[in-house]
């Protein structure tokens, strides 16, 4: 691992390198410095099966982080190195390093003294809403054409359904028989969940630069619980704002875990929902009436999309997400479906909350 880290333009002498268990996609490591006061680094092996265009991926992240730094410095914000991710180029100047086995690696400066949460309280949710709303606002004038879709059709529900139907047809892992009921539940909702794609085609719902992975744990907080930096920028790309709103609610406003085995634990966390909506809408003042009117749908949509994606991976024999045991993708599917049903029951309430804070 040291050999890999040495391929980058690091300022510090390399000390201990330790793996970090975060995310379902890339492999991550902390590179400590010999002298603990020097800069540390965050090393990642990029999942090249998923991010096929690594050059484009790194170029996206570089454009986005440069843009954020520019915006922040125009506002007079200090400690910029803590507020936006900083890619460290390899010794040959590239934004990644390809090793002799064909693996792709990248390094960021590590932002010390920060933490992320899997479970948060309303106060933090409010701050997170402000921070994600601000993030979208800062990126609203980045030239679109310069950004690629790092995973084509990433949050396109029509495409995700096609993938799922393909997996059902193939039944590669022979898991369809006992899960047929899930196919039926998915198909029942397919029309409603493709509404954003249709609205977009009709010119009624714009695409903007989104984070596309606004899981609650992709925000770093400092020791005083102030949001410092939004991380995991692999999927920043054009999309619907309802996706980002929805994905935060899917992960933060759930009284249970993403893969909770106990359905009793799962439900909408109303206080978190309200607090995040309040914070988000204070900042995201650029939203059109159609975007506002579809935020609550976005919440259902993200839980639905995740149900479909986990289920598709389960049917395919677990080829996409990292899993901890053989039935993990099924467990995740059921838990996300349970959350979806709870959100369906509370859909009118969610709409009211959105309109209440939008009118303020
Ligand atoms: C993956 O990066 P990570 O592991 O937090 C996935 C997201 C899913 C999420 C489900 C590139 O995110 O889209 O919502 O798992 N990222 C990719 O928890 O597929
Ligand atoms: Mg990610």
Mean pLDDT across every amino acid position? 96
Beta-strand percent range: 5-15%
CATH topology of the largest domain: Aminoglycoside 3'-phosphotransferase, Chain: A, domain 2
Regarding quaternary structure, how should these chains be classified?
A: single chain
| Rg (CA only) | 20 Å
Number of helices: 13
Any guess at the CATH architecture of the largest domain?
Alpha-Beta Complex
Low-confidence stretches: none
Please state the structural category.
Answer: alpha+beta
**Helix and strand string, N-terminal first?**
HEEEHHEEEHHHHEEEEHHHHHH
**Amount of helix:** 40-55%
Per CATH, the class of the largest domain reads Alpha Beta
Please count the beta strands (DSSP E, at least 2 residues each). Answer: 10
Anisotropy-based shape:
globular
How many strands, what sense, and barrel or not for the largest sheet? 6 strands, antiparallel
What is the CATH homology-level superfamily of the largest domain?
Answer: Aminoglycoside phosphotransferase (APH), C-terminal lobe
Q: Tell me the domain tally.
A: 2
Q: How many angstroms separate the termini?
A: 52 Å
SSE diagram, text form:
Blueprint: H1 2-5, E1 14-20, E2 27-33, E3 41-46, H2 54-74, H3 80-83, E4 87-88, E5 97-98, E6 104-109, H4 122-138, H5 157-170, H6 180-193, H7 195-201, E7 208-210, E8 219-221, E9 227-230, E10 237-239, H8 241-252, H9 270-283, H10 289-293, H11 295-315, H12 328-345, H13 347-358
Helix pairs in contact: 4-9, 5-11, 8-11, 9-13, 11-12, 11-13
Magnesium ion (MG) binds near residues 23, 25, 213, 232 and 234.
């Amino acid at each position: 691992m040291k050999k890999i880290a040495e391929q980058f333009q690091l300022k510090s002498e390399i000390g201990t390198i330790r793996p970090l268990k975060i995310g379902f996609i890339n492999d991550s490591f902390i590179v400590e410095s010999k002298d603990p006061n020097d800069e540390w680094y965050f090393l990642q092996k990029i999942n090249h099966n998923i991010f096929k265009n690594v050059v484009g991926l790194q170029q996206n992240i570089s454009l986005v982080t440069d843009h954020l730094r520019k915006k922040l410095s125009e506002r007079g914000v200090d400690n910029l190195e803590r507020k936006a991710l900083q890619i460290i180029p390899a010794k040959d100047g590239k934004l990644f390093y390809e090793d002799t086995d064909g693996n792709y690696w990248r390094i960021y400066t590590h932002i010390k003294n920060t933490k992320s949460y899997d479970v948060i309280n309303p106060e933090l949710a409010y701050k997170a809403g402000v921070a994600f709303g601000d993030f979208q606002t800062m990126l609203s004038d980045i030239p679109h054409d310069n950004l690629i879709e790092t995973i084509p059709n990433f949050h396109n529900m029509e495409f995700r359904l096609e993938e799922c139907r393909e997996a059902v047809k193939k039944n590669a892992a022979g898991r369809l028989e006992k899960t047929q009921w899930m196919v039926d539940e998915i198909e029942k909702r397919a029309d409603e969940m493709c509404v954003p794609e249709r609205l977009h085609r009709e010119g009624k719902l714009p695409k903007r630069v989104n984070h596309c992975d606004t899981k609650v744990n992709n925000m770093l907080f400092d020791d005083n619980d102030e949001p410092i930096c939004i991380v995991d920028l692999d999927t920043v790309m054009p999309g619907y704002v309802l996706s980002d709103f929805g994905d935060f609610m899917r992960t933060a406003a759930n009284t249970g875990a993403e893969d909770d085995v106990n359905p009793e634990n799962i439900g909408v966390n109303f206080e978190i929902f309200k607090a995040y909506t309040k914070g988000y809408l204070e900042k995201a003042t650029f939203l059109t009436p159609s975007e506002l009117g579809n935020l609550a749908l976005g919440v259902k949509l993200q839980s639905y999309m995740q149900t479909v994606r986990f289920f598709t991976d389960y049917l395919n024999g677990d080829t996409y997400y990292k899993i901890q045991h053989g039935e993990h993708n099924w467990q995740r599917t059921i838990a996300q479906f349970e959350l979806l049903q709870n959100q369906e029951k509370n859909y009118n309430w969610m709409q009211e909350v959105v309109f209440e804070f939008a009118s303020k």
